[in-house]
Amino acid sequence: MALELHVIITSTRPGRAGPIFGKWLEGVAKAHGKFDTKLIDLADFNLPIFDEPKHPRLGDYQHAHTKKWSASVKAADAFVFVTPEYNYGPSPALINALTYLAAEWNYKPAGFLSYGGISGGTRAVQQAKPTLTTLKMMPIPEGIAIPNFAGLLNEDREFASNDLINASAQTMLDELHKWAGALKTLR
């Protein structure tokens, strides 16, 4: 049985570029062939700012949006968070979505596809990693950083990757697969 990878688009704002990169990575991951890959869009869950009355570690969720989010995260063996960099940090929707749950994240690896200006979103990734480790996730070092992303989009907002980005994706997916298999034994 193949491991399940969720490519999660973490920006929810209008006009976002996340779906462009998420769809691209979904295609790359499917071609990679080592995962059953699903594209997940946080915007589809419509999570308000954390509103559960009980602590997530209890798993006693009161709201339908949390139950739906919990089922999605629980089904995955590994994640790639597709995140922009906002004010040197990750998407606020990503931090909120992580906060909603506890056990569902445990012992699963995560990679990042980040995009932004000159830094390619790497500052956002570094700020998100401590939250992942608190949730007992393994943020792998390998990732995809897309600097000056607007220059890689054509007039139809289609992404034109390059050899460096393609190689980064393959390396990250290979490492995610190794970690996902090893960590599954802990769950």
Describe this structure as you would to a colleague.
With 187 residues, the protein is of the alpha/beta class. Strands 1, 2, 3, 4, 5 and 6 form a 6-stranded parallel β-sheet that branches. The protein is 37% helix and 18% strand. β4, α4 and β5 form a beta-alpha-beta unit. The chain has a single domain, classed as Flavodoxin domain (Rossmann fold, 3-Layer(aba) Sandwich), CATH 3.40.50.360. The chain is globular, with a radius of gyration of 16 Å.
Summarize the structure.
37% of the residues lie in helices and 18% in strands.
Task: Map the helices and strands.
Blueprint: E1 3-9, H1 18-32, E2 35-41, H2 64-75, E3 78-84, H3 92-99, E4 109-115, H4 122-134, E5 138-139, E6 144-146, H5 163-184
Parallel strand pairs: 1-2, 1-3, 3-4, 4-5, 4-6
Helix pairs in contact: 1-5
Q: End-to-end span in angstroms? A: 16 Å
Whole-number tally of structural domains? 1
* Most strands sheet: 6 strands, parallel
Strand content: 15-25%
Briefly note the structural class of the backbone: alpha/beta
Q: What Rg do the Cα atoms give?
A: 16 Å
Percent range for helical residues? 25-40%
Q: What's the architecture, going by CATH?
A: 3-Layer(aba) Sandwich
Order of helices and strands: EHEHEHEHEEH
Shape category = globular
Low-confidence stretches: none
